[in-house]
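job 3f2a | input accepted
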Amino acid sequence: MTDFSDEASLPHLPPLLPIFPLDGAVLLPHGHLPLHVFEHRYRAMVEAALGLGRMIGMIQPRQVETHPIPDDAPIFEVGCAGRIVSFSETDDGRFLITLKGICRFRVADELPLGDQPFRRVHPDFSPYLIDLETAAEPSLDRARLLAAAKAYLQAKSIACEWSAVEAASIPAIVTSLAMICPFETGEKQALLESRSLTDQGNMLISLFEMALIENESGVTGLLH
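job 3f2a | predicted structure (224 res):
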Protein backbone atom coordinates (compact mmCIF):
# COMPACT_ATOMS: atom_id res chain seq x y z
CA MET A 1 0.00 0.00 0.00
CA THR A 2 1.20 3.49 -0.83
CA ASP A 3 0.63 5.90 2.05
CA PHE A 4 0.56 9.60 1.17
CA SER A 5 -0.76 10.81 4.53
CA ASP A 6 2.50 12.39 5.71
CA GLU A 7 2.69 14.77 2.76
CA ALA A 8 1.51 18.37 2.81
CA SER A 9 -2.15 18.51 3.77
CA LEU A 10 -3.01 21.71 1.87
CA PRO A 11 -3.09 20.76 -1.82
CA HIS A 12 -3.80 22.99 -4.77
CA LEU A 13 -7.54 23.13 -5.45
CA PRO A 14 -7.92 22.07 -9.07
CA PRO A 15 -10.04 23.88 -11.68
CA LEU A 16 -11.16 20.50 -13.07
CA LEU A 17 -12.23 17.62 -10.86
CA PRO A 18 -13.15 13.99 -11.61
CA ILE A 19 -16.25 13.02 -9.66
CA PHE A 20 -17.38 9.76 -8.10
CA PRO A 21 -21.21 9.74 -7.77
CA LEU A 22 -22.01 7.34 -4.93
CA ASP A 23 -25.38 7.11 -3.26
CA GLY A 24 -25.42 7.28 0.53
CA ALA A 25 -21.73 8.10 0.80
CA VAL A 26 -20.54 11.57 1.72
CA LEU A 27 -17.05 12.81 2.38
CA LEU A 28 -16.69 15.67 4.83
CA PRO A 29 -13.74 18.04 5.26
CA HIS A 30 -11.05 16.46 7.49
CA GLY A 31 -12.84 13.09 7.31
CA HIS A 32 -11.41 9.86 5.88
CA LEU A 33 -13.39 7.68 3.48
CA PRO A 34 -12.14 4.21 2.49
CA LEU A 35 -13.29 3.10 -0.97
CA HIS A 36 -13.22 -0.19 -2.84
CA VAL A 37 -12.99 0.74 -6.53
CA PHE A 38 -13.79 -2.03 -9.01
CA GLU A 39 -15.76 -0.56 -11.96
CA HIS A 40 -13.62 0.14 -15.04
CA ARG A 41 -14.62 3.80 -15.30
CA TYR A 42 -13.74 4.50 -11.67
CA ARG A 43 -10.47 2.59 -11.86
CA ALA A 44 -9.64 4.88 -14.79
CA MET A 45 -10.68 7.84 -12.64
CA VAL A 46 -8.33 6.80 -9.83
CA GLU A 47 -5.44 6.28 -12.26
CA ALA A 48 -6.02 9.74 -13.73
CA ALA A 49 -6.29 11.33 -10.28
CA LEU A 50 -3.00 9.77 -9.14
CA GLY A 51 -1.23 11.74 -11.86
CA LEU A 52 -3.10 14.99 -11.26
CA GLY A 53 -2.82 15.93 -7.61
CA ARG A 54 -4.66 12.82 -6.34
CA MET A 55 -7.96 14.75 -6.04
CA ILE A 56 -11.42 13.21 -6.53
CA GLY A 57 -14.80 14.79 -5.93
CA MET A 58 -17.31 12.70 -3.98
CA ILE A 59 -20.91 13.61 -4.77
CA GLN A 60 -24.28 11.97 -4.37
CA PRO A 61 -26.64 11.18 -7.26
CA ARG A 62 -30.12 12.60 -6.76
CA GLN A 63 -31.94 9.42 -7.76
CA VAL A 64 -30.64 5.91 -8.06
CA GLU A 65 -32.99 3.53 -9.84
CA THR A 66 -30.43 1.22 -11.44
CA HIS A 67 -26.94 -0.01 -10.72
CA PRO A 68 -24.36 0.77 -11.82
CA ILE A 69 -25.23 4.46 -11.72
CA PRO A 70 -25.76 5.70 -15.31
CA ASP A 71 -23.48 8.38 -16.72
CA ASP A 72 -26.32 10.86 -17.05
CA ALA A 73 -27.73 10.42 -13.53
CA PRO A 74 -28.52 13.84 -12.03
CA ILE A 75 -26.25 14.80 -9.15
CA PHE A 76 -26.53 17.17 -6.21
CA GLU A 77 -24.98 20.60 -6.62
CA VAL A 78 -22.59 20.23 -3.68
CA GLY A 79 -19.90 17.62 -3.09
CA CYS A 80 -16.54 17.39 -1.35
CA ALA A 81 -13.10 17.09 -2.90
CA GLY A 82 -10.90 14.47 -1.32
CA ARG A 83 -7.23 13.68 -1.71
CA ILE A 84 -6.02 10.11 -2.05
CA VAL A 85 -3.90 9.53 1.06
CA SER A 86 -3.49 5.77 0.69
CA PHE A 87 -3.63 3.46 -2.30
CA SER A 88 -3.22 -0.25 -2.99
CA GLU A 89 -4.08 -2.51 -5.90
CA THR A 90 -5.30 -6.10 -5.66
CA ASP A 91 -4.06 -8.91 -7.88
CA ASP A 92 -7.23 -8.71 -9.99
CA GLY A 93 -6.94 -4.97 -10.64
CA ARG A 94 -9.26 -3.52 -8.00
CA PHE A 95 -8.15 -0.45 -6.05
CA LEU A 96 -8.40 0.13 -2.30
CA ILE A 97 -8.03 3.82 -1.57
CA THR A 98 -8.66 6.24 1.25
CA LEU A 99 -9.75 9.81 0.59
CA LYS A 100 -9.17 12.64 3.03
CA GLY A 101 -11.80 15.36 2.78
CA ILE A 102 -10.22 18.66 1.75
CA CYS A 103 -12.89 21.17 0.71
CA ARG A 104 -16.52 21.16 -0.34
CA PHE A 105 -17.45 22.55 -3.75
CA ARG A 106 -20.43 23.59 -5.79
CA VAL A 107 -20.66 22.23 -9.33
CA ALA A 108 -20.20 25.16 -11.70
CA ASP A 109 -20.70 23.00 -14.79
CA GLU A 110 -20.05 19.48 -16.02
CA LEU A 111 -17.91 18.51 -18.99
CA PRO A 112 -19.00 16.06 -21.69
CA LEU A 113 -17.57 12.58 -21.21
CA GLY A 114 -15.46 12.82 -24.36
CA ASP A 115 -12.63 10.30 -24.39
CA GLN A 116 -12.78 9.79 -20.61
CA PRO A 117 -15.08 7.10 -19.13
CA PHE A 118 -15.64 9.06 -15.90
CA ARG A 119 -17.43 12.33 -15.19
CA ARG A 120 -15.64 15.64 -14.63
CA VAL A 121 -16.83 19.01 -13.37
CA HIS A 122 -15.57 22.52 -12.91
CA PRO A 123 -15.80 22.96 -9.13
CA ASP A 124 -16.46 26.27 -7.39
CA PHE A 125 -14.66 26.08 -4.04
CA SER A 126 -15.16 29.74 -3.14
CA PRO A 127 -18.23 29.29 -0.85
CA TYR A 128 -16.39 26.70 1.26
CA LEU A 129 -12.80 27.92 1.69
CA ILE A 130 -13.35 27.81 5.45
CA ASP A 131 -12.98 24.03 5.09
CA LEU A 132 -9.24 24.52 4.55
CA GLU A 133 -8.84 25.84 8.09
CA THR A 134 -8.34 23.67 11.15
CA ALA A 135 -11.73 22.63 12.46
CA ALA A 136 -12.63 24.79 15.46
CA GLU A 137 -14.32 23.35 18.51
CA PRO A 138 -18.06 23.84 17.88
CA SER A 139 -20.55 25.04 20.47
CA LEU A 140 -22.31 21.75 21.16
CA ASP A 141 -23.66 19.83 24.13
CA ARG A 142 -21.07 17.04 24.17
CA ALA A 143 -22.96 14.90 26.68
CA ARG A 144 -26.17 15.09 24.67
CA LEU A 145 -24.34 14.30 21.42
CA LEU A 146 -22.63 11.25 22.90
CA ALA A 147 -25.79 9.95 24.58
CA ALA A 148 -27.85 10.30 21.41
CA ALA A 149 -25.11 8.75 19.28
CA LYS A 150 -24.64 5.77 21.60
CA ALA A 151 -28.37 5.04 21.73
CA TYR A 152 -28.67 5.36 17.94
CA LEU A 153 -25.74 3.05 17.22
CA GLN A 154 -27.09 0.46 19.64
CA ALA A 155 -30.58 0.67 18.10
CA LYS A 156 -29.08 0.17 14.63
CA SER A 157 -26.76 -2.63 15.82
CA ILE A 158 -23.75 -0.72 14.51
CA ALA A 159 -20.49 -1.89 16.06
CA CYS A 160 -18.33 0.91 17.42
CA GLU A 161 -15.24 1.22 19.59
CA TRP A 162 -17.01 3.52 22.02
CA SER A 163 -13.97 4.31 24.16
CA ALA A 164 -12.30 5.81 21.07
CA VAL A 165 -15.39 7.91 20.35
CA GLU A 166 -15.49 9.27 23.91
CA ALA A 167 -11.79 10.19 23.73
CA ALA A 168 -12.11 12.02 20.40
CA SER A 169 -12.63 15.74 19.86
CA ILE A 170 -16.11 16.98 19.00
CA PRO A 171 -15.09 17.89 15.39
CA ALA A 172 -13.78 14.33 14.89
CA ILE A 173 -16.91 12.80 16.45
CA VAL A 174 -19.30 14.88 14.35
CA THR A 175 -17.40 14.28 11.10
CA SER A 176 -17.01 10.53 11.63
CA LEU A 177 -20.60 9.88 12.73
CA ALA A 178 -22.09 12.03 9.96
CA MET A 179 -20.16 9.94 7.42
CA ILE A 180 -20.71 6.42 8.78
CA CYS A 181 -24.31 6.51 10.00
CA PRO A 182 -26.94 5.11 7.58
CA PHE A 183 -29.02 8.23 7.10
CA GLU A 184 -31.21 8.85 4.06
CA THR A 185 -29.62 10.44 1.00
CA GLY A 186 -31.27 13.82 1.65
CA GLU A 187 -30.19 13.77 5.29
CA LYS A 188 -26.61 13.01 4.30
CA GLN A 189 -26.70 15.89 1.83
CA ALA A 190 -28.09 18.27 4.44
CA LEU A 191 -25.24 17.35 6.78
CA LEU A 192 -22.73 17.97 4.00
CA GLU A 193 -24.18 21.37 3.18
CA SER A 194 -24.40 22.60 6.78
CA ARG A 195 -22.87 26.05 7.12
CA SER A 196 -20.75 25.23 10.15
CA LEU A 197 -19.63 22.34 12.30
CA THR A 198 -21.96 23.59 15.04
CA ASP A 199 -24.93 23.42 12.65
CA GLN A 200 -23.78 19.99 11.49
CA GLY A 201 -23.52 18.73 15.06
CA ASN A 202 -26.93 20.05 16.05
CA MET A 203 -28.46 18.45 12.96
CA LEU A 204 -26.74 15.18 13.83
CA ILE A 205 -28.22 15.23 17.33
CA SER A 206 -31.69 15.90 15.87
CA LEU A 207 -31.35 13.02 13.39
CA PHE A 208 -30.28 10.65 16.17
CA GLU A 209 -33.10 11.67 18.48
CA MET A 210 -35.79 11.60 15.76
CA ALA A 211 -34.66 8.13 14.65
CA LEU A 212 -34.87 6.90 18.24
CA ILE A 213 -38.37 8.33 18.65
CA GLU A 214 -39.50 6.68 15.41
CA ASN A 215 -37.92 3.41 16.50
CA GLU A 216 -39.70 3.50 19.87
CA SER A 217 -43.00 4.42 18.20
CA GLY A 218 -42.68 1.49 15.84
CA VAL A 219 -42.06 -0.91 18.70
CA THR A 220 -44.98 0.50 20.67
CA GLY A 221 -47.26 0.17 17.66
CA LEU A 222 -46.39 -3.48 17.32
CA LEU A 223 -47.17 -4.16 20.97
CA HIS A 224 -50.66 -2.76 20.86
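job 3f2a | The beta strands are 2-3, 17-21, 32-37, 55-59, 78-89, 95-110, 120-124.
job 3f2a | closed
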